[in-house]
Amino acid sequence: MRLTPLTLSSTIEKHLGEITELNLNNKEISHIEDISCCTSLRKLNLSNNKLKSDECFSGLKYVTELTYLNMSKNEMESIDGVGDLRNLTGEYKFYIHDYSFLYLNTIGTATEKILNLSNNQITRVPQGIVNCEKLKALILNNNQLKTVDNILGLSELGTLVISHNQIEALSGLVGMSGLTKLSAAHNKLRVFPNFGDNEKMKEMRLNNNKIQKVPEYIGKCINLSVLDLGNNLIAEFSSIESLRLLRHLDNLNLKGNAITEVEGYREKVLEMIPSLRILDGQRFDPKFLARKEKRAIIDEIKVREKRERDLGLKPGALKKEYMNKSQKKAKIQK
């Protein structure tokens, strides 16, 4: 089925210029012609159809009031035509995921823009992405990428998610000083990415790769606070010596690396990085542990009081019994 002004007129009683919402879910639509006659259209649901070609975007580029577009569960492999939606790259937040779901939602004067292309069969980053120069987040996980190109011009990009692909190397990121978060887990990386001088980088997820060493240039990401290197090929302390340069690092994961089996591993890492509060998923800072202990005591009191009520006992009747249990548990933990 082709979506045209004629097919719309035959199924909708309203004048096309008055329509503000259209639900065309599961209508076997394979092509979209120019429907700019829908001058008031703001929400359009095209999910569960048979759209394949990125030419479908051309039929929408003059629908200037559109703020919500759902194209989930179609058959698209390329979204190069996203560049045709230039009128939708202003004050919008938008997503494309799960077989090209594109969600556009006005957010007042905010300028947050997210492009989510996850869970497709994409083998390259489309060139048309350069038209989204105000993009804040690019999500490309679970695709078939081997390289990441065409993103250097995205000067305002803050989040890059490229996990679960086939990427063997990341280059061309030195000029992207606005990046704050990177997720490149579950790839084939052997060399730690170089971001150059990046004071904004806060979080890196590089777990499940083949990285053997953290290089000195990691020290240029001076405000990095979260680093996940789990399940890589790091075996020696000399391979992570450069982490001493990260004075704000408070969450480090090295679980699944051979280095964690070395005697004195935990003590040496904590000495090397005194700012750490979480190591290998285990939080140990004093304030957190104090709160945890306090919550455990409160929960125990609630359980005791409930049991006393259920047994018809006076309040506090089982206090001694529970205190003895707590003391035994504390001794075991020590």
Helix content: 10-25%
Uncertain regions spanning at least 5 consecutive residues? 87-112
Distance, first to last CA: 70 Å
Helix and strand pattern: EHEEEEEEEEEEEEEHEEHH
User: What's the CATH superfamily of the largest domain, by name?
Assistant: Ribonuclease Inhibitor
Q: What is the CATH architecture assignment of the largest domain?
A: Alpha-Beta Horseshoe
Assembly state: single chain
Overall SS class: alpha/beta
CATH class of the largest domain: Alpha Beta
Total count of helical runs of at least 4 residues:
4
Structure commentary:
By secondary structure, the protein is an alpha/beta fold. The chain folds into 3 domains: 166 residues, Leucine-rich repeat, LRR (right-handed beta-alpha superhelix) (Alpha-Beta Horseshoe), CATH 3.80.10.10; 84 residues, Leucine-rich repeat, LRR (right-handed beta-alpha superhelix) (Alpha-Beta Horseshoe); 43 residues, no CATH class. It contains 4 helices and 16 strands. The chain has a 9-stranded mixed beta sheet, with no helix packed on it. Strands 2-4-5 form a 3-stranded parallel beta sheet, with no helix packed on it. Strand 15 and strand 16 form a beta hairpin. The chain is flat and about 80 Å long. 32% of the residues are buried. About 8% of the residues have low confidence.
